[in-house]
Amino acid sequence: MKQAAVSLMATAMILSAGCGNNEEKPATVVPVTYVLVHGAWQAPYVWDSVQAELSGSGNKVIVVTLPGHGTDTTAPYQLSLDLYRDKVIDAIAAADSNLILVGHSMGGMVITAVGEKIPSRIRTLVYIGAFLPSPGQALTDLAALDPDSRLGPLLIPSADRLTLDVKRDSLTSLFIHDGSEADKQRVLDNYRPEPAIPFTGKVAWTRENFGAVEKVYIKTLQDKVISPRLQDSMIAAAGIKTVYTVNSSHSPFLSQPKELAGLLRKIGQQAQQ
To answer: Does the pLDDT of residue 66 top 80, yes or no?
Structure first.
């Protein structure tokens, strides 16, 4: 009896050890490199909270300052969409390949041009409430297709037509009506007129280059700048299959940074699979 009991105990221990080896282990989170490109009438500060969220998860984050924005003093007449594109390419020159390139609003035009130029460096292009052109389209072409946008009537061109202002009393209600008072004040404090020439820059892309890069779109459902209807139209034209939504204004990185960062982390991890 004693031998039988010992034998049963030994068998139980072996079975128990075997079951333990089959237990699921926590999924390994692989660090990802994100490159964040802001839009018009904005600057790198808009990504501060999202950058902190992504970096706090062990990811590398590169925030690009487009020429003529933030603290950059390039004259408006010197600016072009190609210059924006090259600035992003320079910013990621030393970064890992297979990075996640994120563009918001006008930044969507920029990352499309980058995707055409260096497709092998990019794992996924992510558009957040962003313009996404068909071949040969400029931002102005897409804006003309958006009667639901409230931006057009609020624009004030400079005398030399090199910059565009947004009526100051409508700025926060247009870009971030769902944000806190502190967020709205940051938008006002960092505001500067937008260079106009890059809006007319056309993006020529091919199926072999840009067309071969994985793309994800994050729709901004309360957007007053790029309407959800235009977003749907651009998504369909580009054939994007992976679409997420944020129930936010045009500026989810300010009003809902945790939710947006969570989506970007999800996209980054899916890109590694």
So the answer is: yes
